[in-house]
Amino acid sequence: MLSHLFKSLLCSVLIAALAACGGSTPDTKSSNSNNAAGNAVQAMAANYVQPRTGWFWNPAEGGRGFAIERQGSQLFVAGFMYETTGESTWYVSTMNQQADGSYRGDFLRYTGGQSLLGAYKPAQPSTYATAVASFDTSTTGQLSVTSAGSNTTTVIALQAFPISTPTAFLPSTDQFQSGWWWNPDESGRGFFIEAQGAQAFIGSFMYQDNGLPTWYVSSAKLLAPNLISGSLESYSNGQSMFGGYRPASLSPTSPGVVSFEMTSNTTGVMTLTNGNKINVQRFVFNTEPVAAEIAKNLLISEVSSDYYSNGSTWFEVYNPNATTAINLADYTLRSSYLDTDLGLIYSSPMTFTLPSVVIPPKSYVVVSSKTVTNPVDSKQIVYVGGSSQKPFWTSSGFLELVKGGQTADVVRFGSNSANPITASAWTGANAPALPYDKNQYGYSIVRLAASGMVDTNTGSDWSSVNFATPAGPNDVGVGVVDSDGDGIPDSAKINGKTFAGLDLYAMGARPGQRDVFMQIDSMNSNDPGIILRPEAAQKLVDTFANKVYSPGKKKIALHIDAGNLFSPTINPGAFNLGGGKSVPYTPCLVMEYDKVTTSGCTNLYDVKRTNLDVRRKLIFHYVIMGNSQQVDGSCGSSGLGEVNGNDFIITLGNCGFKTTAGTQVTYLINAQAATLMHEFGHNLGLLHGGFESNNYKPNYYSIMNYMYSFPGLSANPSGTQAANRFYLTNKSYAKASGLTICNIDNSPCGNSFIMDYSNGSSINLDENNLNESLNIGRGAVAGAYADWDNSNSLTSGTVAFNIHNPDTTVTLGVLKDYNDWDNLVLPLARTFQGVNSGAVLPTMQQVKEIVRKDTMSDKPRNLIYEDPNLLPRHVDSIRRTQH
Maximum Cα–Cα distance for the chain, whole Å? Predict the structure, then answer.
């Protein structure tokens, strides 16, 4: 895409590094003023049209362009182009508005300043040319440039460049602020940013090591509301300011990746290609007073479906202002509601107080009914309701925001007939009804972003959509379906499209595959068991990617976000999708939802409310790598996860893991990978026996089975060593003699370790009629058998034996395998408690129906606790093999 822009614009929207804070005085005082140049645009200037902030170019002369920002009566303009000798160069000008409406100023050329990675050096300016700019619309105009030395004049047509077609020139769908950014302590270089939709461009104006001006550009993506990242590119041999057109050439070598995180409306952090971070701020080049914005009221932008009384009933509000923040507490809510004491739903509205949260311009907040006693509000989601009344609706409902005793906004949907306080605030037909069924979570009625969030006070402003987009723009259109059966709308897998403003395509989502996303946050610690290993994450990703799936089943692509743990900038290949965060260390990590967290412990749900972007709730699994589940922080259970949920924890701390090359680090990597896959399996609907809790079934050939969780699987389940993991688990067996976790085949101590879910191909094993020659149930090569009766030899006929838990007295039964892979439940939202792939999910891929958790409230449906002795036992066996 970027090469196209340079051949057809040269970088569309750069995050151009602000050349300097230089410029010129008004042209009426400039010794370089040129009346002829001014006359060329005078008629156009008479319109007094103001240009938009962004990138401009001449479509007939792609390869050079101009970054323009207006502040009051001034423009700050940078032109990026080439010397006549072919090197890239740039010029800047502070242009002042004249009486005729045009803008005039000197173009300055700076030299001798700071390079991309070099130490600060002050740049020196010289006057290059005089320029006059004028505009007939906010997106078209022309620029007349006259050389300072020869009085040569060129007139360049200007046209705003549409980065994010077909939504050209619409503002960013996130809070990203386009314009000039710089570090005042390092003047002479800086950054110009324009974002359209979910796309942006970074262009850096700075200097070569020899002091000559140069620039870099990057086609970037908004991967978070305030975060962009992309690879830098450089070009040469294009058109100069006064020369004829010639196409530019892309350099074959990239300087590297840069990212920019906006920490407030006026401050940010730029991460350079070497990982160094520099603080930047908005460049204010005009200090004239700016007319105050006429503030608009909040808009109700989305209402989501609900069914059960203890679910999360939520709607979304939007601040439509460009510069004015809004405090939600300035409004009250009138809503249809549920009386939980009486068990009655009322269509007439009740008034609810709204909490204090400041909503930035062009931003969204979710307002949810309380699902617990003391929920924690955040900047993206707040909770309302009393002890027995809460906002609620069925297929019909009513929501009204009230400010100063008057209606600020209202929506009435379905068959509801309630009236707003201000009668004129709603006219005509109601908005569409919502689905109302236990299998119809995750639907919404919305003001579509593509329609400009129309507000005409009628039901026609609203559309029914198949996918809720909480805390972000309503960018999933009417009728969009999920063809892949992963809970992600097809539209979000297309380049340039988004889901609630999230660019899932940039994160790796693609049509024709089942995409699953996971955010892994890690506690701050030096304990090797807590620090996620990239090899472990890669092993998990590869297990899904390399699986041979059943006919008709699309492959699963797992996308892991560990934040900047392995890469300082956005890099999906290094597990940085812009969201993973660090967690303060505590000895204990728990998953406790509606009660006081155990003293001294961190609660996953408390951290998640802060660390996980609400827009990710419907599509991301959330994981914390922590120390221990024991209050004293000692080694114990390896993990804890929700079954049919989306949250789990990994607790491998204080277990003595080491990074010593060889067996120690290899086992650490495999233990992390195996535990991640095991707990992830619970999220995807698997129990320790696949479809049941019956553990240690030798024929259930899955990482979910404790027999194979840490030891892994044999590459040959029909071979003579297939039963070794059974013997290793049951030390009283004669064949366990001499076996260790490190000398079994495909041991976790080596690089051939195998982890997998079962494909269900094992035969049943009837404990009342066991045939040892059938091995563990997946065939037997010559000489292979399973010594179920511990006779240390093959027993002919059949035997009766408890083989799934030999150390206990359990009724004998038929042990069954399970096809884990074909029964994984991937979507996170359709039926209560959460969003799953219920029968009504618009999908063309057959998927399993299951009750899941409510992902918007985080309330777990069921937690699967692990044996606290299993991990210490395996770690101890590794330790013994090293002595």
Answer: 108
Q: For residues 706-722, give the mean pLDDT.
A: 97
What's the CA gap between 772 and 820, in Å, rounded? 25
What is the pairing mode between strands 514-523 and 620-626? parallel
542, two tokens: 């590869």
- Say what percent of the chain tops pLDDT 90: 70
pLDDT at 325 over 70: yes
pTM of the full predicted structure? 0.77
Burial class (CB in 10 A: 0-12, 13-18, 19+), 720: middle
Q: Which of 156, 186, 172, 349 is nearest to 265 (CA)?
A: 172
Virtual torsion, Cα 772, 776, 780, 784, nearest 10 deg: -60
Q: How far is CA 6 from the centre of its chain?
A: 29
613-666: per-residue pLDDT in tens? 999 999 999 999 999 999 999 999 999 999 999 999 999 999 999 999 999 999
d(CA 812, CA 147): 95
Peptide bond into 166 cis (omega under 30): yes
CA gap 130, 151 in Å, rounded: 9
Residues in the chain: 883
DSSP state of 713: -
Q: Where are the alpha helices (DSSP H) in 567-662?
A: 604-611
> Are 881 and 744 in contact, with CB atoms under 8 Å apart?
no
For range 568-575, the mean pLDDT: 89
**Cα–Cα distance between 83 and 243 in angstroms, integer?**
9
Question: Is 369 in a helix, a strand, or coil?
Answer: strand
Check if the beta carbon of residue 509 is closer than 8 Å to that of residue 223: no
Give burial (CB, 10 Å; 0-12/13-18/19+) of 834.
Answer: buried
**Is residue 842 predicted with pLDDT exceeding 70?**
no
In 3D, which of 84, 49, 87 has the Cα closest to residue 68? 49
On whether the CB atoms of residues 486 and 514 are closer than 8 A, the answer is: yes
- pLDDT category at 568 given cuts 50, 70, 90 is confident
Provide the pairing of β-strand 582-583 with 358-359.
unpaired
8 A C-beta contact, residue 580 and residue 572: no
Backbone φ, ψ for residue 257 (5° rounding) = -105, 140
Q: What is the DSSP string of 393-435?
A: -SSSEEEEEEETTEEEEEEEETT-----SSGGG--SSPBPPPP
d(CA 131, CA 92): 10
Q: Among all chains, which residue has been given the structure tokens 């602020």?
A: 177
Report whether 591 contacts 551 (CB < 8 A): no
Amino acid letter, residue 340: T
- Quick check: 388 and 318 in contact, CB under 8 A? no
SS3 state of residue 716? coil
Residues 747 and 667: their CA atoms lie apart, in Å, by: 9
Nearest 5°: CA angle at 881, between 880 and 882? 90
The partner residues of 140 in beta bridges, in order of sequence, read 137, 159
Do residues 496 and 199 make contact, with C-beta atoms less than 8 angstroms apart?
A: yes
pLDDT of residue 62: 85
CA distance 448 to 461: 8
Nearest by Cα to 700 from 832, 805, 825: 805
Burial class (CB in 10 A: 0-12, 13-18, 19+), 351: exposed
* 36 pLDDT more than 70: no
Phi-psi category of residue 528: left, alpha or beta, with phi > 0 → left and psi -120 to 50 → alpha: alpha
pLDDT digits (tens, 9 = 90+) for 237-274: 999 999 999 999 999 999 999 989 888 888 999 999 99
Nearest to 297 by CA among 403, 423, 405, 411: 403
Region at 37 (left for phi over 0; alpha for psi -120 to 50; beta for the rest): alpha
- The continuous run of DSSP H or E covering 348 comes out as strand 344-353
